[in-house]
Amino acid sequence: MTTIASPRAPFSLDLLLNTPKKKWSDIAGTAASIAIPLAILGAVVINAHGLDVARLVAVAPGASLFWPAFVLLYATLPVSYWIIYRRIWNLPISGLVPLFRKQVANEIVVGYAGEAHFYFWARRHAGLTGSPFGAIKDVSVLSAVAGNVITLVLMALTARDVTMLMHGGLAATFRWSIAVIVICSLVPFLFRRRLFLLPPGELRFVLGVHFARSMVSMVLTAATWHFLFPAVSLATWLSLNTLRMMISRLPLVANKDILFAAATLLLLGDNADAALAIAFTASLTLLAHLVVGATTGVAALVERRRGAN
Questions:
Q1: Which residue range forms the structural domain that includes residue 43?
Q2: How far apart are CA 164 and CA 147, in angstroms?
Q3: What pLDDT score does 151 carry?
Q4: Residue 57 within any structural domain of the chain
């Protein structure tokens, strides 16, 4: 008996080129919803090898105000974004989960991977009639603007300490960095009619939340260091964190870690306990990223699988 094979349609470049944009968007969303959680889990495994959990446990304080301060500090960023998207989209409380996942993806995978993942999550879950890209773009741009403006204000407030740190060739680089920050802050406002899609009232609200979040984060960071090492005053820790935030946003300055170490010596001297407090908080933050990344990454894959069935 002869089996007649059914004719198979040949590959057509025209068919590929004429694929509807919506279908390509769905394909990209499916790929991102799988790839980014997998990338988070991969980053968790890689970073877990370099984390000394035993040393963290040995250094960790007992009953202390450090722990509630640290939890609040870690939650400040995703909660602030939830407040913003609650206003824009009426985002439910369940939206905090992808926002925590967004924070982890940006920190341990690659910058803006979290925004990409949150964009595709919002398209599926936020119940929007249009694309959420414009709102996410506006919120991200305003976050950068708020950070730049706060950096300029901090430079003015810490001018004396900054002058002691920036000398020689570094001073010229510092001045050029200020110029870049000013330009990057002005451009979005000069082209705001073409750049932003959200209404002016929403833009003001978003910018206000970003400013408030930055200030709260600065205070909570200083508070966690103070609760770990109370021999140094909260005001001194706040000054150090102010310099750290400022240094981290200087675009043309290399070796930011070395510059921050110099700022630490300037304010605290050669203080091993103070350095330990800063290192402990950084390591604990990484541990929190790994735990949150593992749990939310697995949850995203399980959710995706259930949705496919």
A1: 29-308
A2: 23
A3: 85
A4: yes
